[in-house]
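Thread: "does anyone have the structure for this chain?"

Original post by V.I.:
We have the sequence but no experimental structure in hand. Need at least a predicted one for the grant figures.
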Amino acid sequence: MTRHARADGFTLVELLIATTLLALLSVILFGGLRFGARAWEAGGESIERTGEVEAVQQLLRRMMVEAVLPEPAGAAPEPSVAGTGGRVNFFAPLPHHLGTGGIGRYALALDERGQLLIAWEPRRPERRLEAPLSAAPSSVLQNVAALNLSYYGSLAPGDAPGWHESWNSRTLPLLIRVRIDFPEGDRRRWPDLVIAPRLARASGA
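Reply from O.Q.:
Generated one for you, tokens below.
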């Protein structure tokens, strides 16, 4: 009976080994869970960053591709696009959700706080394209280090098309390129955005 009872029990050494193995398994399992959680968070942040950039690019593409050549509002014709490397003003249809229709004046610029701003308002004959907009701008992208705009086309009849750092012409540029740089260490990436206004070919013909 004594020998049988000893055979059915566990020795202290066996209990120590089992406890050690259980502890090792717990450490491995917990480490795997933490790694998985970190990988999930990193992947989620990457998707969020990519989604933010893609959303802003789609917004800019929708606005600029609709750039129009409005009828002159006064005696002196005004440009259809007035742009520099850091700012651009143009005419395009007002957003559909406003329900008003018509042509609006748009402005895209980067402010001193690193915010990419967009503003629009209905076109008024007394206000030139380059005039400041009375509407409050909306911030569509924050923590931006630099905005660089360039324009492809012919500034004068007969000139060969090329890239220009500024544009102030009655005709639309064939292409508008938008480049954005983020601060050092920022993991967001901005692929080159090149937009072709739909009416540019007709206006340049």
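V.I.: this helps a lot. Residues 55-204 form one domain.
O.Q.: and The longest helix spans residues 12-64.
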